[in-house]
Design a protein that fits this description.
- This protein has 162 residues and is mainly α.
- 79% of the residues lie in helices and 0% in strands.
- It is built from seven helices and no strands.
- It has helices spanning 2-9, 13-17, 21-48, 53-78, 83-111, 123-149, 154-158.
């Protein structure tokens, strides 16, 4: 138990030394998967229920964080880490990555003319969402590379993938 608590806060210089763009891309794709599931689900639910833009956006962001953390948590728990330590690992690994991703992709959606008013059946809804997630991926990857290089972010999770 003590080792797991320490592992949740440890810096891993061996990971930092092997930080690469490929590792950052994998970490960002992992983050993007959870964020995209939560974001799409939130937008679909909010739009289907006829909610306004702000509540729908808030739901999408909350679900993006939830699914982003859940994906990491699943893998860390599967590696045998207790829940409390696994939660610390997930929070340390994903918070900045998810925050940047959400800021960027929601910024694109909010700023794209007509995107906030597009219905689920409107191709504009899906095209802008795809473009927003792509832009978020491109801008979040360097953030993850920087964090991994410092022994943070997905570098913390890396030890549980072996």
């Amino acid at each position: 138990m003590q080792h797991e608590a320490h592992a949740a806060h440890a810096h891993h210089p061996e990971v930092a030394a092997t930080s690469s763009w490929a590792m950052a891309v994998r970490a960002t794709l992992h983050c993007l998967t959870g964020c995209a599931i939560g974001e799409v689900l939130g937008m679909v639910i909010g739009t289907a229920l006829g909610w306004g833009n702000v509540p729908t956006l808030v739901l999408a962001i909350v679900l993006a964080f939830f699914f982003g953390y859940a994906f990491t948590l699943r893998g860390v728990l599967k590696a045998g880490v207790h829940l409390r330590a696994a939660l610390k690992v997930a929070l340390a690994a994903d918070t900045l990555s998810i925050a940047v991703m959400e800021l960027v992709d929601n910024g694109v959606i909010v700023l794209w003319p007509g995107a906030m008013d597009a219905e689920l059946a409107d191709p504009l809804f899906w095209w802008v969402l795809a473009i927003a997630l792509t832009v978020a991926f491109v801008l979040t990857t360097p953030v993850n590379k920087w964090m991994i290089g410092r022994g943070q972010g997905h570098a913390v999770v890396h030890q549980y993938h072996h």
